[in-house]
Design goal:
By secondary structure, the protein is of the alpha+beta class. The protein has 21 helices and nine strands. The protein has five domains: 95 residues, no CATH class; 127 residues, no CATH class; 105 residues; 134 residues, no CATH class; 47 residues, no CATH class. The protein has a four-stranded antiparallel β-sheet. A three-stranded antiparallel β-sheet has the order 1-2-3, covered by helices on one side. Strands 8-9 form a two-stranded parallel ribbon. Helix 4 runs parallel beside helix 7. The chain is elongated. The chain starts with 9 loop residues before the first strand and ends with a strand.
């Protein structure tokens, strides 16, 4: 056989004689004849011959197998167009060795993978395991795949120097092809080693992934082709030791935390955890505002703004540099935030609430309490409530609120007294109207009950507007009561007239047996004109009014005492 190909293939030139060819031809002829005949329809003697031939085929096959094995043992092997001496005592050994040599020629770097990642669970277990593997003499155990890892690491760094983006998918494509031939899972294991050794970082969806914390996401990236094409490998930049120590000192002072990690990833992990705790604390304080105008909200927002600059989308070097640059700003913020904590954790919040309530009350009752003292106190309170950092002045709020409360109480007392007098006058007028003939006892009692309730409620009021409303309510009640009284009197008079008409319409014969009805008592009436009863025409003072009312009262009472009713006329 002639070798004319240099392709990735194994060509075998069989050795020995070619007697196996004749044997194979005879077997094929017999089988071809049997397939072309319907043996069951042939004569019996022919069937016997064919059956004997079938037995012969079996013997010939055995001889062919033996002859071919001898030919293969004595064969000449050509791999990629070059004759190669293949060792082996059996056909299987020679064939395996030939293909092994072919694979090794095509995939020259395949032997560099000495330890395999057999399944996805092994890869995940490696990601979440502790980073360091140390021997008894404190030497780090070298990876069985050290050379393969070095190749991938050098390729990644070369691409980074050329400012090329390095994604996991192209790395898979490169190292699964010749001359490597590595499995994707093994490549993923090597990338995971580089990640855990802090030599590279993996950015996915604008965030850097950490081996233990983001193991599930990393497994998605490593095992799904579409996601592997999104994940970017970034060469980790070396952080100066002095910068690392400086950041650790700043974090220790700011967060009052002593046991911080010494390595890059560990320190960033600790600081991020402390930042997350601080952000949770800020959110809890923000919820306590409940849409109230408490001070310090801008301070809380500023803290969130600072901490948002340390998201997972930045690399370690940027993280440490930024943290050091913000040292003074963060220090000031940590000092100022103590005011907010003190506000909510002491009685300052309740005092401030009273100040807010007092200012709302003042806006409502400003027309009633316009004094210079109150106005000055409320101006000071307004300044405190609008001060972005009022914490040292909150202690002044109670005395300012007291000034307003005192004035409100004074005005409230005065207005209650005025209201009480007006309600009493309405009560007197309504009661006077109810004492006329024709008004039911029920109406009289209801008026008495309702006005006594009004006076009792008035005493309980602490709201100036309710006091004013009580006067209006009393007057409205009085008007309605008088209207009801007039209707009752009108109805009573109508009924009296009907009874009178019935008595005069028909004269009934008087039975000599029945006694005569007793005559109704006659009540004398005296018509009075007030201008004639007291001839005074002008009243100049309140004292004159009191005297006039007293004199008028005495004269009218004298008429009542003489068993007369008074009928007033214009």
């Amino acid at each position: 056989m002639m070798m004319s190909s240099g392709n990735n293939e194994v060509i075998i030139k069989l050795g020995g004689d070619e007697s196996y060819v004749e044997e194979m031809e005879e077997v094929l002829k017999i089988e071809e004849y049997r397939r072309s005949r319907n043996i069951a329809q042939l004569p019996e003697n022919i069937q016997n011959i064919l059956n004997n031939k079938q037995a012969e085929v079996k013997d010939r096959r055995r001889r062919v197998r033996g002859l071919l094995e001898d030919a293969l043992k004595n064969s000449t092997f050509f791999i990629k167009g070059t004759q190669v001496d293949i060792k082996g005592s059996t056909v299987q050994e020679k064939m395996n060795e030939a293909f092994k040599v072919l694979v090794e020629n095509i995939y020259k770097h395949l032997p560099l993978i000495q330890e395999f990642t057999n399944q996805e669970s092994d890869l995940k277990a490696f990601l979440v395991a502790d980073n360091d593997q140390i021997t008894l003499d404190d030497a780090v155990i070298e990876s069985p795949n050290a050379q393969a890892k070095q190749m991938i690491d050098e390729f990644i760094r070369l691409q980074a120097e050329l400012n090329k983006q390095i994604r996991i998918k192209p790395i898979y494509d490169r190292y699964t092809d010749a001359p490597y031939g590595w499995r994707e899972l093994d490549i993923a294991g090597i990338i995971a080693e580089l990640l855990k050794e802090q030599r590279i970082r993996i950015r996915y969806n604008a965030e850097y992934l950490e081996p233990r914390e983001d193991a599930n996401t990393l497994m998605t990236v490593f095992t799904r082709t579409k996601e592997a094409d999104k994940a970017v490998i970034v060469v980790r930049q070396k952080v100066d030791e002095s910068l690392l120590r400086s950041v650790k000192r700043i974090a220790r002072d700011l967060f009052n935390k002593r046991d911080l990690a010494d390595d890059e990833d560990g320190l960033i992990k600790d600081i991020r955890h402390l930042i997350e705790m601080k952000e949770e604390e800020i959110d809890k304080y923000k919820k306590r505002y409940e849409d109230r105008k408490y001070p310090g909200m801008s301070l809380l927002d500023k803290g969130l703004e600072y901490f948002s600059q340390f998201d997972r989308g930045i690399d370690n070097l940027t993280f440490f540099k930024r943290f050091k640059e913000l040292e003074d700003d963060l220090g000031d913020w940590f000092d100022d935030i103590q005011y907010v904590k003190s506000f909510f954790d002491t009685n300052q919040q309740s005092i401030y609430d009273k100040g807010l309530q007092a200012m709302e009350t003042y806006e409502e009752v400003k027309a009633y309490v316009q004094t210079e003292e109150v106005e000055n106190a409320m101006n000071q309170l307004h300044d405190i409530l609008n001060d972005p950092i009022p914490y040292n002045r909150i202690k002044d709020i109670p005395k300012l609120v007291h000034v307003l409360d005192e004035q409100i109480n004074t005005v409230l007392t005065e207005k209650k007294e005025t209201a009480r007098e007006k309600i009493q006058l309405d009560f007197d007028e309504a009661s006077l109207q109810a004492n006329q003939y024709g008004v039911s006892n029920r109406t009289k009692e209801q008026i008495d009950i309702d006005y006594k309730n009004m006076l009792a409620l008035l005493n309980s009021y602490t709201d100036l507007f309710k006091v004013d409303a009580a006067i209006t309510r009393s007057n409205s009640y009085k008007i309605k009561a008088i209207q009801d009284i007039q209707r009752e009197i009108t109805e009573w008079q109508r009924q009296k007239e009907l009874e009178q008409k019935k008595r005069t319409k028909v004269t009934e014969p008087v039975s000599p047996i029945e006694p005569a009805p007793e005559p109704e008592p006659v009540i004398q009436k005296e018509t009075v004109k007030l201008s004639e009863l007291i001839t005074v025409r002008t009243l100049s003072t309140e004292e004159d009014v009191d005297k006039y009312v007293s004199t008028l009262s005495n004269k009218l009472k004298q008429i009542i005492k003489s068993n007369k009713e008074i009928e007033l006329k214009e």
